[in-house]
Amino acid sequence: MNSVGRPPELDSKGEPVQKSLVNVTIPSKLANFLKKKGINRSKLFTDVVKKMYNNELCPRCYGEDLHKGLVGIFCTDCEPAAYRVQGSFHWVQLFNCENCDSRYKPPYNMFANSKEVPKGCWDCIPKEKRL
Ligand SMILES: [Zn+2]
Ligand SMILES: [Zn+2]
After folding, report:
1. How far apart are CA 74 and CA 65, in angstroms?
2. Residue 120 burial class via C-beta count within 10 angstroms: exposed 0-12, middle 13-18, buried 19 and up
3. Counting ligands in written order, which one lies closest to the CA of residue 111?
């Protein structure tokens, strides 16, 4: 059996993302341009909103429950707090270490500090020096 249309977009819990129809009014020349290029307006609008508000919206579940931690920004809408263990957050954005510029990569590269370095990471502070 052939399936019609594209498969539904799933959120981080595997549930179909709920969709709403929105009407937008744009200049006719812009509308013609999009039509001529064959650009999917729903996808375009979603992509633009995700890009413009990438620190306010989770790109996986579209939730707004984002939190800033030491190593990055994570979404708590994706996973209830009770199930969270260190390193398994749904990271929306990961920061770079202020000391060595390595990207934090939980659980492989986490925040660390030492007597000499107040804000570092596992890459730049050897285990025996970490506080
Ligand atoms: Zn999320
Ligand atoms: Zn570092």
Report:
1. 8
2. buried
3. 2
